[in-house]
Amino acid sequence: MIALGIDIGGSGIKGAPVDLETGELTQERVRIETPQPSTPEAVARVTREVVESFDLPADTPVGITFPAPIKHNTVVFMANLDQSWVGKNVDDVFEQELGRKVIALNDADAAGYAEAIYGAAKGHDGLVIVTTLGTGIGSALIYNGQLIPGSELGHLEIDGVNAESRAAARIREEEKLKFPEYAKRLQRYYSHVEMLFSPDLFVVGGGVSKKHDKFLPLLDLRTPIIPAQLRNTAGIVGAAALAAKGEVL
Ligand code: BGC
Q1: What is the greatest pairwise CA distance in the chain?
Q2: What pTM does this model have?
């Protein structure tokens, strides 16, 4: 079965059809820059362009990831897109523009789900915490293969500041941190999360996880910490898989 996954991020809106047997993309990923300001209308318009660039049957399930917590289809708070999203019913915004049913969910929950079904967390029992290091820090909690949606561990307050404002991959770029310096920030972050949750495994995703050999070996944790396998397709794949299941989180 094929479903379409769309991943809305602070810098790009990406999409591709996914073969749900294998978790692989069946066509090249399409990416368009996120419009600025990233209002609901502007983002929905670009999302339509991405959806329409694939010639898929009208009943293909569509899953859309979103860089914010979504509860009962509604944006709870927004760190990295326009504030006018707060309180909006995301399904309504996209269904009006696309004229088809969609399922919208948090980007890190989607990525975590994909890693649990097809990737690095597959077959791992106990508590797996998947984190995505990107514009912000996203998190997904997976317990015995089951996603527990809605965690926001990027916004833990550590040393008096919001954790993602020190340890997101974007901050490494903005502050031009070398990997050993960045690893110190990740050390502080992951040891705190480890203390709070005693997980069985950490999985690290987001674009920077391509370079995992430069920072993961520098971390000293009790918990094994491994790179994500799906990397930048995890959000797309997880959204497509959850849309096909008809899962509303
Ligand atoms: C948002 C999360 C999101 C993460 C990664 C955070 O700022 O609050 O919902 O998963 O960024 O995009």
Answers
A1: 51
A2: 0.96
